[in-house]
Amino acid sequence: MMGNWRGLMAGTGAAALLLAGAAHAGPLAPKPKGGLWLGGDLSYVNEMEDCGAVYRSGGKPVDPFALLAAKGGNIVRVRLWNDATWTKYSNYPDVLKTIRRAKAAGMQVLLDFHYSDDWADGGKQLTPKAWEGLSTEAQAKALGDFTRDTLRRLDADGAMPEMVQVGNETNPELLGGKETVPIDWTRNAKLFNAGIAAVREVGRTASINPRVMLHIAQPEFVLPWFDAAKKAGVTDYDIVGISYYSKWSKWSLAQLKQTIATARTRYGADVILVETGYPFTLEPADTATNLLGQDALVKGYPATPEGQKRFMVDITQLTVDAGGAGVVYWEPNWVSTRCGTRWGKGSDWENAAWFGYGTHEALPVFNFLSQRYVRR
Hints:
Elements: H1 15-22, E1 37-41, H2 45-50, E2 56-57, E3 60-61, H3 64-70, E4 75-80, H4 92-104, E5 108-113, H5 136-156, E6 163-166, H6 185-205, E7 211-217, H7 222-232, E8 239-244, H8 253-267, E9 270-276, H9 305-321, E10 326-329, E11 340-341, E12 344-345
Parallel strand pairs: 1-4, 1-10, 4-5, 5-6, 6-7, 7-8, 8-9, 9-10
Antiparallel strand pairs: 2-3, 11-12
Helix pairs in contact: 5-6, 8-9
């Protein structure tokens, strides 16, 4: 735990109260057995099941949360939007349902605040409509209040997460930033520190004291971003989260490994590869354009079920060798159904899911969760 409280509430009358309260915080949520988080982002499961998806293992219908745990998974990631009026998913009721299912299966939960009414990612950060036009100070307060209120509500509902992401792939500036626009770190630090402070505040008295993760897409951007964050006073986090997709990254697996190792020592935080994915086929199952095609392949790993599994085994061992603390796959359950998205009917990710076409039978990739990974 970084534990630098000085930058959080600087210049406010709450600083002394925060510093005093920190001493009474309970221990952070425990690490899983073996100290390695392994799992997937199951944010799409409730929607897929509503759309008729039935997941199978050995030909028999299975609960996807129970299956993930049975195969060796110990963490479920779930995204939360602010006020996504265009969908009935990834809102509070849907997230609560997902967290309860994950905990019922005996797994930890990583709650991913997008701080947006829609997708926020490494190319864009969209300001929630309700926060548009506010001053930086007012936006920081709104962000902190939203974080605090959500976590308190989850705790009251018996669904407190063990880990919290303050933002999703926040390469651009929070709340309205674009990847092509330089970050105003004075503003950015106020926003991040407001969210972090809210997590710490709730964690001091909640049933679970969650770890804080900050998350950057693609390894080539990780060290510059976290160096700038440190200089701006954003230091109180426990985990560096990294996305790695060969389609969108210019760096190799070897460079990813070096980034994980450097981040671990430079920032004194755990490092989790919190998003990655790999196709088991290049053939589509529907008319939606798949995000991962030929341009997503890595030499030595064909787009086959076995190739997908070997990629996940090897990237997990790479993460462990670099001193990393876990790997989380993005959307293993986003299969093709009768439903669709704004981009097409079906799924944009079915060829990178963990279930085959047709009957949605579990694929060999699940076996990466139960491998014995040794720090070499």
